[in-house]
């Protein structure tokens, strides 16, 4: 489980990302289809980060098996993990914007 202070920071990062998205693209998506498409794109980008992280971790394991204790591969795994965190923040911000879109549509009915 993640530290409570770290969780607060993650939620703040999501808020900042949502503010940036809203400033650039507006408060709502044009339709649920657009919201889904944007969310799907962000999830696919996160999946690519996971694949890259797995590749880097495999490289770390290969280095360990070869008794090569170099931190370069671990640093590359770290960079991939940070990229994954960035994509996860974007996914969460997109979800918040999508929720706002759907809630607005429900209120207008």
Description:
This protein is an all-alpha fold. It is 85% helix and 0% strand. The protein is elongated and about 65 Å long. The termini are far apart. The mean pLDDT is 96.
In short:
Helix content is 85%, strand content 0%. The protein is an all-alpha fold.
Secondary-structure element string: HHH
Judged by helices, strands and strand pairing, the structural class is mainly alpha
State the end-to-end distance: 40 Å
Shape by Cα distribution: elongated
Poorly predicted runs of 5 or more residues: none
Number of helices: 3
Rg calculated over all Cα atoms = 18 Å
Q: Give me the count of strands.
A: 0
Q: Into which percentage range does the β-strand content fall?
A: under 5%
How would a crystallographer describe the biggest sheet? none
Task: Report the mean per-residue pLDDT as an integer.
Answer: 96
Layout of strands and helices, then pairs:
Layout: H1 4-25, H2 32-65, H3 72-108
Helix pairs in contact: 1-3, 2-3
């Amino acid at each position: 489980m993640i530290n409570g202070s770290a969780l607060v920071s993650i939620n703040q990062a999501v808020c900042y990302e949502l503010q940036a998205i809203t400033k650039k693209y507006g408060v709502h998506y044009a339709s649920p289809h657009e919201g889904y498409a944007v969310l799907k794109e962000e999830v696919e980008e996160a999946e690519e980060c996971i694949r890259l992280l797995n590749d880097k971790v495999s490289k770390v394991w290969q280095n360990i098996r070869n008794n090569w204790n170099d931190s370069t591969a671990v640093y590359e795994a770290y960079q991939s993990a940070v990229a994954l965190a960035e994509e996860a923040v974007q996914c969460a911000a997109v979800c918040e914007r999508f929720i706002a879109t759907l809630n607005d549509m429900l209120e207008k009915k």
